[in-house]
Amino acid sequence: MTSNFSSTVAGLPRIGAKRELKFALEGYWDGSIEGRALAQTARQLVNTASDSVSGLDSVPFAGRSYYDAMLDTAAVLGVLPARFDEIADHENDGLPLWIDRYFAAARGTEKLPAQAMTKWFDTNYHYLVPELSADTRFVLNASSLLQDLHCQQVRGINARPVLVGPLTFLSLARTVDGSDPLDHLPTLFAVYERLLKSIDAEWVQLDEPALVADVAPEVLAQVRAGYGTLAARGGVFVNTYFGSGDQAVHTLAGIGLGAIGVDLVTHGVTELAAWKGEELLVAGIVDGRNIWRTDLCAALASLKRLAARGPIAVSTSCSLLHVPYSLDAENIDPEVREWLAFGSEKITEVKLLADALAGDIDAAAFDAASIAIASRRTSPRTKPTTQELPGRSRGSFDTRVALQEKALELPALPTTTIGSFPQTPSIRAARAQLRKGSITLEQYEAAMREEIDLVITKQEELGLDVLVHGEPERNDMVQYFSELLDGFLSTANGWVQSYGSRCVRPPVLFGNVSRPAPMTVKWFQYAQSLTQKHVKGMLTGPVTILAWSFVRDDQPLATTADQVALALRDEISDLIDAGAQIIQVDEPAIRELLPLRDVDKHAYLQWSVDAFRLATAGAPDDVQIHTHMCYSEFNEVISSVIALDADVTTIEAARSDMNVLSALKSSGFELGVGPGVWDIHSPRVPSAQEVSGLLDAALRSVSPRQLWVNPDCGLKTRGWPEVEAALKVLVSAAHQARAHLAASI
Ligand code: GLN
Ligand code: ZN
C-alpha cells in the first residue's frame, strides 16, 4: 500500500540557480571539461533540487537531465532516431553510455541533423520532438535513471520519479513515414507497465499535459484502458497541467490510480465533477508558470472545499521549470518585490498551504500574503486605466497601395531584410563594458553608431532596396523594449531554461505600461541620415512583448496588450515625424500563444489582432506597415494574418519548401508578402538557382505586385561572411526575376 502525501511540487528546474548545468554543458561540448565533471555537476544539481523541497513530503525526481525531459524519456524508451546508432557507446566516466547519441539527437553533428525542436505547449520552453515511424520498437533503457533514483534513496529522499506519460509522448511525436504516432499507444502502455514495475519507488509520476488539450474520444478511451492496467502497480500519479483538469479527471477517475494532478490556476478552480474522492487529488493551486505571490487565504478556501470531497495534496500548477529559482538573488523595487514569488517562495507557499489544511496555520505568513495582495491591488501602478482608445482601422488596402507606391517609389520585387544584422563579438563586448561601467553611455552609443554605419554601407553595396539599421543596440528585442517602457522590471538573475543550455531572463510586466520617452527614434534617425534609401523603423509587437514576459494576471491579457499597443502607437507616430515611411512591427509570437483548445482560439486571435491594429492604425495611409512572423505553419492563423492588415508580411518559408504559399493562394491573400527565400537558421549559403526557384514558386502563388524578396528571419545569429554571400545571391536573384517580369509584360 502506498500512503498519500500532502505537499509537493509538479517538477523542479534543472539548469541550476547559477546556471551551473549550462556552464558545465558548454564546457563539455567545447572540450574544456571532462565527462566526469559534467556528470558530477548534474548529480549535484539533482541533490540540490531534492534538498530544495525537503520540507515537502513527496519529492519530484527527474534524474540527471542533460538537455530536455522529452529527450530523457525518449532515451529511457530507447527511441533516439536510428541515424544516431552509428555513434558508439560513451566511455564509462559517470555519464550515461548513450550520452553521445543523446547530444547528437539534441544538437546534431557535422553529418547528422538534430531532432526537431519546438515549443512545449504554449510555453517558451523547447522540447526535442520524438521521431518515430510505424515500425519503431521501444527498448527500455532505464538503468541510468534507476541508479540516480537509488542515490536519492540512499540520501533518505522520498523521491518520486517523473516521466512524460505515453499519451503526451506520442501526441508530441512526429513520424517520418506519415503514420499516426498514436498508433503506438497500446504498445507504449505495455512498455510503461514494464518500466513502472522496474522502478522501486513508492510513487511514480507520469506527466500528461496533452490531456488538457482537445483529444478524440476514442483516444481518451485507450488512455483510460491503458492507465487502468498501469494502476495495478500502485502509487501511479498522473499529472496534468496548462489547462483545466476536467477532461483528465473524467478520463482517469475510478480506475485505481493513486493520484491525479490538476492545474487549478490556468482556468481557475474548475468543477472536477468526475472526482469522487477515490484517488488523491494533487491540487496545483500555486502558479508554477507565473511569478505572482499566491493569495493564500483564497487558495486555502478553495483547497478546503476540495478536501471536503476526498483526499488532497497541495502542489504547483505545473513544474517550476518555467520560473526563476528565487527572489533572494534579486535586488528589485521593494513595492513590486512584495507581490512576487519565484521558485523557492512558491515551495514555501505550498508548505504553508499544506500545513494550514492540516490545521496548522501560520497566521503571520497568511497575513503577510494578504497585505501584499492588497498592496498590489490598490497600488496606483496597477490601477485600471480608463482612457478612450483611438481607432484600429486604416484606409482601404487599395487606397494605401496607391499612396504608398507614389510615396515610396520602390522597384518591383523589392529586396529587404528582417531587421537584425550579425551581433558581432565587438557589439557584445561593448554591451558588457557598458554594464560593468568600463565605458560611458556616450562611448557605447558611439560604438553602436559605428555598427550602423557599417550595416548601412554594406546594404548599399549589396544593392538592397529597403534598408534596416541592424538592431545592434538590442540583444533581446523584448528585453530591450521592456527596459524602456514603464510597467516592466528586469531581473538580475531570473534565468529560465529555454532549451538545452540556453536560458532567458523574461521581464516582469507588473503594472500599467506607458512610454516615458521615444525608444528607437534616434537610432532610426541616425541610420536614415546615412542613406537616400528608405530605412525601416523597427519595433516589436504587443503580443510578442507579452508572450516573452511574465505578465500581470490581475486584468485580461487583452487590456495589457492594448496598453503596450498604445505605447507602440506613440512610438510609430514619433518615427513618422522623424521621417520614417516604412515601419515594421514584428509579431513572431502570435502563433505561439495560440490556446491549446479550439474553443479558446477565436477569442485569443481576436484580441491579439486587435492589439496589433491598435498599435499600427495611427499610421497615415501613405506609410507602409510591415510585420514579421517566424513560422511556416500558417494555415491555422492565416485569417488572422489577413486581419492584421499589415501592408507587407514577411514569413519563414525556405525551410519548409515554401509550403506557406499554398495557404496564401487558397486564402486569396492580397496584401504584400515576403516568404523568406534564405533559411537563416542554417549557416549554408543558398545557390542562385535555389533562390530563383523559390521566387518562381512564390510567383505562381502570389502576384508580382505583392511579392517582396527577403531572408526568413533576422540575421543576428549569423556571421558576416555568410550574410554578405547570401544577400548577394538574394539581390541578384531578385534582379533577374525583375528582368523576366519586365520582359514578359
Ligand atoms: N526584427 C527582428 C530581427 O531581425 C525579428 C526577430 C524575430 O522575428 N524573432 O532580429
Ligand atoms: Zn523571425
UniProtKB/TrEMBL annotation:
Protein name in the entry: 5-methyltetrahydropteroyltriglutamate--homocysteine methyltransferase
PANTHER family assigned: 5-METHYLTETRAHYDROPTEROYLTRIGLUTAMATE--HOMOCYSTEINE METHYLTRANSFERASE
Cobalamin-independent methionine synthase MetE C-terminal/archaeal domain span: 413-735
One GO BP: methylation
InterPro entries attached to this UniProt entry: Cbl-indep_Met_Synth_N, Cobalamin-indep_Met_synthase, Met_Synth_C/arc, UROD/MetE-like_sf
Role, per record: Catalyzes the transfer of a methyl group from 5-methyltetrahydrofolate to homocysteine resulting in methionine formation.
Essential cofactor(s): Zn(2+)
Gene3D superfamilies reported in the protein's UniProt record: 3.20.20.210
Binding site for Zn(2+) 1: 628, 630, 652, 713
The record's free-text note on cofactor binding: Binds 2 Zn(2+) ions per subunit. Binds 1 zinc ion per subunit.
Active site: 681 (proton donor)
Species of origin: Corynebacterium crudilactis
Residues that bind 5-methyltetrahydropteroyltri-L-glutamate: 19-22, 119, 124, 502-503, 548, 592
Binding site for Zn(2+): 628, 630, 652, 713
Residue numbers binding L-methionine: 418-420, 471, 586
